[in-house]
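quick one, 229 residues, struct below
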Amino acid sequence: MPTIWSDLLHLFFPKLCITCKCPLIHEEEHICLTCLCDLPQTNFWEENDNPVAQLFTGKVDVVNASAVYFYEKGSKVQQIVHLFKYHDNKKLAYIFGRHMALAVQSCTAYQSVEILIPVPLHAKKERKRGYNQSEWLCRGIASVWERRPVITNALTRISASKTQTNKSIYDRWLNVHEIFTLQNKQVLEGKHILLVDDVITSGSTLLACAEILITVPDVRISVLTLAAS
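---
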């Protein structure tokens, strides 16, 4: 009976794709398969010296750094990021975390990841938004990569940064320099950590996180974002 009512409800009030607004079919969640396949993948994880990895070169040694999709203004990827970042849709972030995991799971560098750490929000901003979108990306990844815990109490943001928009690369780095701190370092010792965020542009925020994490004894760091701008 619940299935019949569900089918009737879907008939009169169909769930629509978030990008093309076409009705979703069974097993499609939020986005239709056509739009999902149309999202521009970077395949950066197949290149050791890809544009995302280059942002860390000479600054912090990383095992791998990449992004799954290209991010452009007005694109479907931007629309997706804005929906889960600013419109209270953490389930969408979770789903795209799963897509991230599936996209890069054949990459040898990521197969040895042991811990997932989201880039933290300042506590005030997280309370206002209700959640950290990067944490929900992590939770989506963890649902595909079993036995990789999501650790949210090791890396914390101790002060809020100003907007990065219209800042130079150096000013972006200054804006986030020394705004993160570490707790429970012993949990991270000797581990391969995956640092996760939604979009990477200059890399300043992720670099600031990596600079703190690299102080943990015998730690290895990889970076993965949903998109690269």
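The mean pLDDT is 89.
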